[in-house]
């Protein structure tokens, strides 16, 4: 649904109606297009192109003394290495850098699409995208755990961590099993999804309030509400940019910590 | 006649309830984190790391509470 469409229809005209789930539903881009070709798909393809182009420009011809875009690329790389890979995975964290850097920047750009004019859609607000990313990490985590600890050792390390009083294991073992095998991929994806979903809904709400009270139904009393909505849209946009970057960071941090836990179970 | 009637979207009340626990938890995490940084400023990076990790794990509960009403309705 496009923005004018939402604003034209609410409740038959007379009353303000907050935007709901319908702002997340998109029909195909043009009439007769294949049904999967919608705005989120287009933006995610655009994100892939941006990320690839950025790193191509940064590292295509690396120089010993970096210039221009290579500087930015190196700062981004060092950030992921020093803040995520090395603290979470340890010494062999550098081996995982290609995966972590691409995950981090893909999610970061994907989220920031939510505050770029015209596009205005954090794609992670469709749960399909975070689920796939979390599933990749989940499958990798289980594969690495079994490879490095063995099938029995994996479950033993997970459910019976050493050094606790015996009766405690009755409670601990099922909780650990549930939280590691079932809840982990679920919360990993839902965390990213729900943050983007809530943020987009919030921005849409304040923007709709501003448009409705300042342009559609301009009255003396309503103008104040409209101005508040307008200012809140600006403030929330800044806040959303922060949250989007934080969520990209946290998603990658958790992915790294799951991988690290699979490689070194003693932690 | 009802003494106290709840009308409207019950999901929003559920979200309010779901936000209590994580709210307390996130407050404790950041409060203790800031205190730890004030005591050991040279460990700021490590503390911030673990603070954000704990924050992410705690916040998940509130977010699940936020999403469930939409899924359920």
Tell me the Rg of chain A in angstroms: 23 Å
Span between N and C termini of chain A? 48 Å
Tally the helices of chain B: what do you get? 3
When the domains of chain A are counted, the total is: 1
**How many angstroms does the end-to-end distance of chain B come to?**
27 Å
Beta-strand residue fraction of chain B = under 5%
What is the average of the pLDDT values of chain A? 88
Say how many strands of chain B there are: 0
Biggest sheet statistics of chain B: none
- What's the CATH first level of chain B? Mainly Alpha
What would the average pLDDT of chain B be, to the nearest integer? 86
- Tell me the number of helical segments of chain A per DSSP (H or I, 4 or more residues long): 8
Total of domains of chain B? 1
General shape of chain B: elongated
In a few lines, what is going on in this structure?
The complex is a heterodimer of chains A (267) and B (73). Chain A has 267 residues and is mostly helical. Chain A has eight helices and no strands.
Features of the shown structure:
heterodimer; A: 267 residues; mainly alpha; 8 helices; 70% helix; B: 73 residues; F1FO ATP Synthase; 79% helix; elongated; ATP synthesis (chain A); ion transport (chain A)
Layout of secondary structure:
The complex is a heterodimer of chains A (267) and B (73).
Chain A: H1 3-8, H2 39-59, H3 69-89, H4 97-112, H5 128-149, H6 151-159, H7 168-216, H8 220-263
Chain B: H1 10-18, H2 20-39, H3 44-72
Helix pairs in contact in B: 1-3, 2-3
Question: In words, what does this structure look like?
Answer:
Chain A: The chain crosses the membrane at residues 41-59, 96-121, 127-146, 167-186, 192-214, 221-239, 245-263. Chain A: Keywords: ATP synthesis, Cell membrane, CF(0), Hydrogen ion transport, Ion transport, Membrane, Transmembrane, Transmembrane helix, Transport. Chain A: Belongs to the ATPase A chain family. Chain A: It is a multi-pass membrane protein. Chain A: It is found in: Cell membrane; Membrane. By secondary structure, chain A is mostly helical. Chain A has one domain. Chain A has 8 helices and no strands. Chain A has helices spanning 3-8, 39-59, 69-89, 97-112, 128-149, 151-159, 168-216, 220-263. Residues 1-5 of chain A have low confidence and may be disordered. Chain B contains 3 helices and no strands. Chain B has one domain: Up-down Bundle (F1FO ATP Synthase), CATH 1.20.20. Chain B is elongated. Chain B is mainly α and 73 residues long. The mean pLDDT of chain B is 86.
């Amino acid at each position: 649904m496009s923005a004018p469409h939402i604003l034209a229809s609410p409740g038959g005209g007379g009353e303000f109606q907050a935007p709901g789930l319908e702002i997340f539903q998109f029909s195909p881009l043009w009439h007769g297009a294949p049904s999967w070709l919608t705005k989120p798909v287009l933006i995610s393809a655009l994100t892939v192109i941006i990320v690839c182009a950025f790193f191509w420009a940064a590292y295509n011809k690396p120089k010993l003394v970096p210039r221009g875009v290579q500087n930015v690329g190196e700062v981004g790389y060092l950030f992921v290495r020093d803040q995520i890979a090395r603290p979470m995975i340890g010494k062999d964290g550098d081996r995982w850098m290609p995966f972590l850097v691409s995950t981090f920047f893909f999610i970061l750009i994907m989220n920031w699409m939510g505050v770029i004019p015209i596009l205005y859609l954090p794609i992670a607000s469709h749960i399909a995208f975070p689920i796939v990313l979390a599933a990749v990490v989940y499958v990798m985590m289980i594969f690495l755990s079994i490879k490095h600890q063995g099938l029995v050792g994996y479950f033993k390390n997970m459910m019976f961590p050493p050094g606790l009083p015996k009766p405690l294991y009755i409670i601990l073992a099922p909780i650990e099993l549930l939280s590691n095998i079932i809840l982990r991929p679920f919360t990993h994806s839902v965390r990213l999804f729900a943050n983007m979903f809530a943020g987009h809904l919030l921005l849409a709400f304040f923007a709709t309030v501003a448009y409705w009270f300042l342009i559609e139904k301009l009255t003396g009393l309503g103008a104040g509400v409209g101005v508040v909505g307008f200012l809140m849209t600006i403030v929330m946009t800044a806040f959303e940019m922060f949250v989007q970057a934080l969520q990209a960071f946290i998603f990658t941090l958790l992915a790294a910590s799951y991988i690290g836990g699979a490689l070194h179970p003693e932690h | 006649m009802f003494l106290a009637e709840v009308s409207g979207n019950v999901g929003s009340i559920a979200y309010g309830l779901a936000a209590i626990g994580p709210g307390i938890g996130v407050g404790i995490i950041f409060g203790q984190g800031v205190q730890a940084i004030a005591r050991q400023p040279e460990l700021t990076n490590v503390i911030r790391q673990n603070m954000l990790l704990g924050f992410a794990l705690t916040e998940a509960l509130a977010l699940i509470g936020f999403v469930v009403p939409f899924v359920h309705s």
